[in-house]
Amino acid sequence: MKAFDRWVLSGPFTTRDLGVYRIVFGIAALALLPNAQFLSSYPESFFNPPPGPFRLLDALPPLGVLVALELALALALALVVFGVVTRVASIAAGLLMIVLFGLSYSFGKIDHTIFLPLVALLVVWAGWGSAYSIDSSVSDAARPPRQWPMRLLALLIGVGFATAAAPKVLGGWLRPGTQATEGHYWYELLIDGRDAAFAPLFGNITTPVFWEPLDWITILLEGGILLSVINWRAFRILISFAAVFHVGVLVMMNILFTTNVVAYAAFVPWGLAVAWLRDRGVRAPHLSPRAWIVMASVGVPLLALCAWLLSISLPLEVENGIKLTIIIVGGLVGAAYLVSQAVALVRWISRTRADDRPSGRREVGV
Amino acid sequence: MRIALRLIFALAILLLPAQLLFQRQFDQPYPGVFQPSFAGTPLTGDILKAQIPVVHVEFDDGASEEIPFEDVLPDSKLLDKSVFKSAFFLEDRATAPDTVKWLRGDLARMFPGREPVGMTVDWTDRRIDITGATETTDEITKTVVIDLTEGAR
């Protein structure tokens, strides 16, 4: 049991990593702010929540309540960005996201955005408000970061992906005669009309030699994430593969797994990026705590209002452009990490082989 | 603290079988820690199978017009096919008074000057030969009829 405790409590995350990620998360979540007002254009009889607490509702809440929920979420996320009453704001943001997503998913389709609220509800306990925040500028108490919330988030991401892997295995994805990925590709292209950009090009590929390995790779990735939670490096490698995989799904099927990429970013060593910038003379302006508070008191409502206005007014194409950018950036970061790990592996192998060379040969030479 | 953490992690691990069992027995719950399964294999040989709704609007002059099912729904950020299936696959839901009232207004706006008296949804199994995507065969497996006349519920 001690080994288990050590595993739960160990991790590489610093307060700087978490502090920067809090800002990245808050801005990304504001850019993806869920909009629920359009739901009121459906008749009440369309309201059909999935099993769960939303079944307690008889009908969609009135438009005024939907707007209030949207504004409350925008405000909570803006507070998260500035790190003001971070713990309360983060929990409120997580719960409001669950509610707003849940209302949207009460019309026949659950989108799988659950990692986003999970981040807000878990990483806050790691101490993401302890650096680069108004809270930390007015408090002297420096606490070391807790690692268990990050391990729990990783585990839940693994559980989420395993729920996708299991039905695929049971549904015949691993049978060599069934090219499930190809089938879903054609379904998205011809039935759901996802035929933008590069997607039609894949229709020219008919050989199972291309499609069948994709079925296996998908299941290995989705099942492997849960197993990789045992080791931080393994988990980072697998979620980097996942980030690259989402770019592939975007290019092939025009499906946007944006919220996942924002969640994977929790495991990026952001502190290194800050150190890299600092070495090059890029620093945050040095302001007194009072000045930061004044800045936040203006910035929080302004940021919340701007994000909310954009969420209700931006055309769908622009929204999709934001999502696409997040996925591509995530894919590039994932690919860079995979390359760095591959280089480290090659170096390690070369070093090991050099060390293993018989010392006798050197002696002969000598 | 350690015991509480052990308990939390044990619950997180047990969440996987619990969720899969719940989903198999009932439906996917929300909130839940799920990712999209894309289960099944919609392609058999070179034939893609899909269920699609084919919608006809009937008018008081006896005419009938086929319309894309997406046109029935308001512009939204949700996937139209899922919303449409949730609302119009089961007869009870499709003919709910609120839906009928809303459809009357919706179709009247779509067809100004004409009087829609009914809407028929043919749930159709479409088979598409992907080697030549224009080759399709349709088989209606279920028909939902919605009476839009004033006497309808």
Automatic annotation (TrEMBL), chain A:
Q: Does the keyword Repressor apply?
A: no
Fetch the InterPro entries from UniProt.
HTTM_dom (IPR053934)
Regions crossing the membrane: 20-39, 59-81, 88-108, 114-132, 152-170, 213-230, 237-255, 261-279, 291-312, 324-349
Q: Which residues form the HTTM domain?
A: 15-266
Which key words tag this protein in UniProt? Membrane, Transmembrane, Transmembrane helix
Give a yes or no for keyword Transmembrane in this entry: yes
Name of this protein? HTTM domain-containing protein
Name the lineage.
Bacteria, Bacillati, Actinomycetota, Actinomycetes, Micrococcales
UniProtKB/TrEMBL annotation, chain B:
Lineage, top-rank taxon, reads: Bacteria
Q: What is the protein name given in its UniProt record?
A: Uncharacterized protein
Q: Which organism is it from?
A: Herbiconiux gentiana
Lineage of origin: Bacteria, Bacillati, Actinomycetota, Actinomycetes, Micrococcales
